[in-house]
Amino acid sequence: MSEYHIPVMPTECMDALDVKQGKLYFDGTLGGGGHTSEILKRGGRVIATDRDMEAIDYSRMRLSQISDYNGRYTLVKDNFKNVSDVLKSHEIDSLDGAILDLGISSHQVDENLRGFSYSGDGLLDMRMDRDQYLSAMTVVNEYTEDELSRIIYTYGEERFARRIAKKICEIRVGSPIETTKQLSDIVKSCVPESKHGNPAKKTFQAIRIEVNNELSGLGEAVCDIVEALKPGARIAVITFHSLEDRIVKQTFKTLATDCICDKSLPVCICNHKASVKIIGKYKPSTSEQTANSRSKSATLRVAEKLNRA
Ligand SMILES: C[S@@+](CC[C@H](N)C(=O)[O-])C[C@H]1O[C@@H](n2cnc3c(N)ncnc32)[C@H](O)[C@@H]1O
């Protein structure tokens, strides 16, 4: 098991995908290579993306140590939202299954230098892709009070968003807010103590989602992946908070529905045909939740490409 990241629901995911020898799977969120390793262990082949070069380098090193895996995986530094281009540039027409394990890896959180952690201390950063310009430092120091308030409220579902945004803007007048500890202390000074974990969690989640543009295009990416699946092949998506889970749930529901016209219309004008059937929704077992507390908020959703699609 990797110390970089413990894969969530690995057995449930492999069972859902029904991984078979020689078949090709897309792992859009490689991370520490936990799910990719499980696929390779079962004889599958993998094309994987991650937008974080550190994840690609780590997994390449990890996978290269097992000679049996040689020649069965391709790792690409890219956003899974570009799945169609990635498959095309590798001359891949169709997939036998796909997995997305959304969010950030334990390594990204635990490494203070990456600036994601509300409990550690490091320069505010939060970029999964360190080649991109926008970082948490820019969001916290340059966004207007209204923008900050909207982001913290919408992406963090934080009811004290206005108060936090106001405080951030007051403090940064003196000198920029540069560290995760500074931001965490500001949030703590605005939010009443709670029994439900660190009060800075929601604000950090919100800023991370904004920095990495995590929600926009997620539904479209799921559709593009489904498009690439062979009939009978499955997609498994693990989410960690309600905002991304809602998008995946709604996308699966739309893909599983024949007509998506407004209910008030007397006849169908959309000609939409269902392309998947929904297989189910799963939570980690109690024993997994005890062994890996980070798995607690995970939800796995699985859908299968229809034969007629
Ligand atoms: C929860 S971890 C995945 C862990 C992995 N399944 C494992 O078992 O080791 C999420 C990973 O996906 C990456 N990621 C998140 N959103 C991405 C996106 N849109 N495109 C590519 N990679 C993404 C992150 O950089 C991170 O490395």
Low-confidence stretches: none
Whole-number total of structural domains: 2
Terminus-to-terminus distance? 38 Å
CATH class wording of the largest domain: Alpha Beta
What gross morphology would you assign? Answer: globular
The second-level CATH architecture of the largest domain is 3-Layer(aba) Sandwich
CATH topology of the largest domain: Rossmann fold
Secondary-structure topology with pairs:
Elements (H helix, E strand, L loop, with lengths): L9 H8 L6 E4 L6 H8 L3 E6 L2 H12 L8 E5 L5 H7 L5 E7 L4 H5 L25 H7 L2 H12 L4 H14 L5 H11 L10 H12 L5 H11 E11 L2 H14 L20 E7 L3 H6 L7 E7 L4
Parallel strand pairs: 1-2, 1-4, 2-3, 4-5
Antiparallel strand pairs: 5-7, 6-7
The structure holds S-adenosylmethionine (SAM).
S-adenosylmethionine binds next to helix 2 and strand 2.
Commentary on this structure:
The chain has helices at residues 10-17, 34-41, 53-64, 83-89, 106-110, 136-142, 145-156, 161-174, 180-190, 201-212, 218-228, 242-255, 286-291, and strands at residues 24-27, 45-50, 73-77, 95-101, 229-239, 276-282, 299-305. Helix 3 (53-64) links the parallel strand 2 and strand 3. The protein is globular and about 60 Å long. Strands 3-2-1-4-5-7-6 form a 7-stranded mixed sheet, with helices on both faces. The protein is α/β, with parallel strands linked by helices. It has 13 helices and 7 strands. The chain starts with 9 loop residues before the first helix and ends with a strand. The protein has 2 domains: 10-103 and 216-305, 3-Layer(aba) Sandwich (Rossmann fold); 111-212, DNA polymerase, domain 1. The longest helix is centred in the middle third of the chain and has 14 residues, at 161-174. The mean pLDDT is 96. The site of S-adenosylmethionine has 22 residues, from helix 2 and strand 2.
